[in-house]
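Worked example 2:
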Amino acid sequence: MKEIVLKNKQDFITILSDYSISSHARKVLHDVEYVVLIGPAAGGRNTIINQLVSEYDFRQIISDTTRPPKFRDGKMEQDGVNYFFRTEEGMLEDLQAGEFLEAELIHDQQVSGTSIRELQKALEADMPAINETEFGGAINVLNAKPDTKVIAIFPPSFNEWKKRFMNREEISNKEFLNRVVTAKEVIKLVRKDQRIRVVINNEYHEAANEIQEYVYGKPQTRIERSDVDHVLTDFEENFDKILA
């Protein structure tokens, strides 16, 4: 598989290092209810979002990205469905205008982010907006909108995650290692920031139900912290072996 090269990498690094959102974006953020899912790649975030959108009153937010479409889960990704596939120049222009909630350099290969235009659609539909992002994006979201509900999705074990990951797409060893490094950062963030809720994705219908109950403030059975720690430790120990 051809490696993705970001042509304007330094320009993105410069603007993202001191990024601020527009006044229009701040008003939209103030008014919209926002839910963000983070977690390791192939943890089931998109499947859960699809379930929440189809079964409950959620509006999916489609992220913008500079990378080209991939062949994933047996089919080619589609513009406006999986992502909005943008030119680097187009994303730089919108970032300069402050019209992203967040954006970040991912895996040192691409820039992806959440456009305010998508959150505006959720606000107009009077529905909670839901999206998935990387750990850096979640930090940026919480800084811009502290009442965002950030939820970390993890498979029940490292072995289950690896099986799901290998069935998902073909990637190079370097890209796999990039995903492992990113997943380790997600775990660090989850352990550090108590505002982030953890949902263990044993079965996506159950995970989606737990999330909708959390978002709508309904009584629910919360997973024990010891169970969460066990899962996170399982991932950490195996990631350390891979990166050793």
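Residues 3 and 109 are 8 Å apart (CA to CA). The chain is about 50% helix and 15% strand.
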